[in-house]
Amino acid sequence: MKTIDRLRRIVERHQWEEIHDFPVDAVTAKVMVTAFDALNETNQEKCVLVLEKPNGFVRFAELSYKHVKFDGFASATSRSTTGHRRTSWNAMGASTDSYKSRP
Predict the structure, then answer these.
(1) What's the pLDDT at 52?
(2) Does residue 28 belong to any structural domain of this protein?
(3) Fewest C-beta in 10 Å: which of 60, 69, 92, 103?
(4) Are 89 and 35 in contact (CB under 8 A)?
(5) With the CA atoms of 39, 43, 22 and 31 taken in that order, what torsion angle do they form, in degrees rounded to the nearest 10?
(6) Cα–Cα distance between 49 and 41 in angstroms, integer?
(7) In whole angstroms, how far apart are CA 80 and each of 5, 10, 77?
(8) How far apart are CA 29 and CA 11, in angstroms?
(9) pLDDT for 78 beyond 80
């Protein structure tokens, strides 16, 4: 099973799992899945390969927390690299349309 599928399973079940010997809780998994879903298809393919490596997994987790502001499990706010608010959405039904169309 691919790492991104395991992250989605964690979000769905709200049950932590170990991935690459790191414990991953539902909040961390949701932030990572939200960031992954915001990528375009080409970058998603590259990200799948990165997530399969322990170092890549940790780097993507850190990157995800930098670019997705998470105020608990009810809502998430995506921020650009300049810190400006991009999109606000319900975390369980994350709509990333405006995030994908950023300049």
Answers:
(1) 95
(2) yes
(3) 103
(4) no
(5) 0
(6) 13
(7) 26, 26, 10
(8) 6
(9) no
Instruction: Say what the pTM is.
Output: 0.68
pLDDT tens-place string over residues 2-32: 999 999 999 999 999 999 999 999 999 999 9
Report the C-alpha gap between 84 and 79 in whole angstroms: 6
Residue 12 lies in a domain: yes
Query: Range of 61's domain?
Result: 3-91
Asked if residue 98 belongs to a domain, the reply is no
Distance CA 85, CA 6 (A): 29
**Cα 85 off chain centre by:** 17
